[in-house]
Fold this sequence. Notes:
By secondary structure, the chain is an alpha+beta fold. It is built from 3 helices and 2 strands.
Amino acid sequence: MTVTEARGLLLLLRAKPTLLPPAPLGLDPRAMDRRAYDEVHPCLGCGSLAHLAYVADCQLYGFRWLDLCYDCAASVREANN
């Protein structure tokens, strides 16, 4: 995913956060590690295996999972700066 594509993805997620699966309330780092390492989820950016799990606070829609591979996570971080 390029930085431009990552920016588009972030804009889409802000407009339609229900595209992301809900994350539990009171989330702790162990739950994020379990999702990233013990569960199988596709990367939201490219569809390959996600290695990282983030939680996005979507305000009106609550917390949502953001599953990304390393490369897409780097693009999203750069686009978010």
